[in-house]
Fold Transgelin.
Amino acid sequence: MANNRAAKSGLAAEAQRKINSKYSEELAEECLEWVRQITGEPQNTSGDMDNFFEVLKDGTLLCKLVNNIKPGMVKKVNESKMAFKCMENINAFLEAARQLGVPAQETFQTVDLWERQNLNSVVICLQSLGRKAHNFGKPSIGPKEAEKNVRNFTEEQLRAGQGVISLQYGSNKGANQSGINFGNTRHM
């Protein structure tokens, strides 16, 4: 592990392996390439966990990213490598991401990145931000988001729909339960 914490063991180690198994190097690489397209950094866009963590852990690149998408989103980017300053950067990024339209369930906790607990959630957040970027005239990644398609029905159309018996209710077409027996048959 890159930080100075003791390695996890037992159930904690098993839980961490499960979280790590969801991490996709391809998606992480796509995210880093998108970040480079917008910010000009990083040089190495390899999606392996070590590189992804090293590139993003201090939060400065994340802050530059949101400031490039919408200038002035993060007022002060801490260049210091002190833990609490880096965590402030990550928090500032998360707040900016929410303001740019990333839903809360697609963001991550600061420790997910800083303590390398769940890098997959960082990838999910960047993917979500990448989908929002086109709203600000920037290149986007991932699938295009769906747009609202509101339908307005008249009262008459709504009443007509109530009289239809949907096939979702099903039909048994004369079926019965004869011939069905559960368990063992009776032996005499």
